[in-house]
Amino acid sequence: MSKKPKETQANTKLFKDGLLYRNISATLTEQCKRIGITPTTLSKLSGIHTSTIKYFRTSQKTGKPFSVGTFFGLAKALQLDFDHVLPPHGGALEPFPPPLTQEDVDSLAVAAKALETSKPDLLRLMKTLSEMGKPTNPAIEETAAVFAAESGFKVPGSLEILIMIGRRVRSLRIVRGLGRSELRGISGVPFSSIFAIEAGLQNPSMQTLYQLAEALQAPISFFFKTDPETEKDQIDLERRAASIIACGQISSVNEMLSTVEYLFRTASGTSPFESS
C-alpha cells in the first residue's frame, strides 16, 4: 500500500511521538519561568484562557497537539523569534517571485478602483438573473442575496492570526499555480480544511500548517511573522495572486456576456429569424 502524503513529507519526523509539540511547549514554558510569568499573567498578555495555557504546558510531557492560534498568541506575548522557535519543515524551499514593479502596483490599484466602481452593476445583474430564474426556481433570490452580502461578511469571533494565515496560504497557493485539490494531493490536508483555513474559519494544528508550508515550499515562520518585511511579502503575493485570478476570469466573463445575450434573445421572445 502506497504511503499517504502526510507520511512521506519531510516534516513527518518532526511530529513523531509528538516531538515538536513537546519541544515547543518546553521552550515556551522555560521562557515563562526564566522571566517569571505565571499562567494567569500570560493569559492576560496573550488573551488565551488559562485552561488552554495549562493544557499547552502539559504537552511538553504528553506531546499532545495544539493549534496555531494558541502557539502564535503565546509566542507573541513572550516576544519570541519564530525563526528560532520553529524548526524548518525539512522540505524544499522555493523563493518568492521578485516584487512587482511600482508601475505594476499602480496599474493594479487603478484596475481595483474600476472593479469597485463596476461592482454595483454586477450586483444588479445578479438580481436580474435571479428574477429571470424565478419561474423555474423560486428560491434563487436567496442565493443572490448571499453574493450581495459577501463584501460585508466577517467571520464572527475570528482570530486575526487565522485570517492572516489564511490569506498567506491562499495567495501563495495561487502564485505557486496550485488548485486546492492539487494542494490536498501534495500536502495530505483535506480539501475542506484547506478551504476553511484559507477563509480564516479553521484554527489548524501545528502539524497541519507544517504540511501546507512544506507543500507550498515556504518557510514555516512566514505564516507567523508580522515584521514589516514579511508583511511586504504578503502584500506582494496577494497582488500577484489577484492578477493571476483576473487572468483566469476573462474567459468566464466572456462566457457570461454571451449567456446574457442568449437570455435576452430567448426570454424576450425575439424571433429567431430576426436580424440583430
TrEMBL record:
GO terms for cellular component: cytosol. SUPFAM superfamilies: lambda repressor-like DNA-binding domains (SSF47413). Residues 169-223 form the HTH cro/C1-type domain. Transmembrane segments: none annotated. InterPro entries: Cro/C1-type_HTH, Lambda_DNA-bd_dom_sf, TransReg_Diox_bact_type. It comes from the Bacteria. Coiled coil: none annotated. Keywords: DNA-binding, Plasmid. SMART domains: HTH_XRE (SM00530). One of its GO terms (molecular function) is DNA binding. This is HTH cro/C1-type domain-containing protein.
